[in-house]
Design brief:
single chain, mainly alpha, 3 helices, elongated
Length: about 80
């Protein structure tokens, strides 16, 4: 899916480049080109940017657990009154 998005944005950037009188400062070209480049970098670095939790050690899983999206999150416990 990510590759399809990169390809679509690249084609959109190319089309905008042609529409914008072949100017690299044409705002729609800049927008689509920057997004395509950013997503291409995320795709190129793979699990470095968004690590897969299945590849982490148990210590790393414990560290990342609060930040992981899950449906079983519980609410914080209320503080005890003094």
């Amino acid at each position: 899916m990510l590759l399809l998005t990169i390809l679509t944005l690249s084609l959109l950037a190319f089309g905008n480049y042609l529409i914008g009188a072949k100017s690299i400062l044409y705002p729609p070209f800049v927008f689509s080109a920057v997004w395509a480049a950013d997503l291409a970098l995320i795709w190129a670095v793979g699990d470095f940017f968004y690590p897969s939790f299945s590849n982490l050690s148990s210590t790393q899983r414990e560290f990342h657990a609060p930040y992981r999206r899950s449906a079983t999150r519980s609410l914080p416990k209320p503080m005890k009154e003094a």
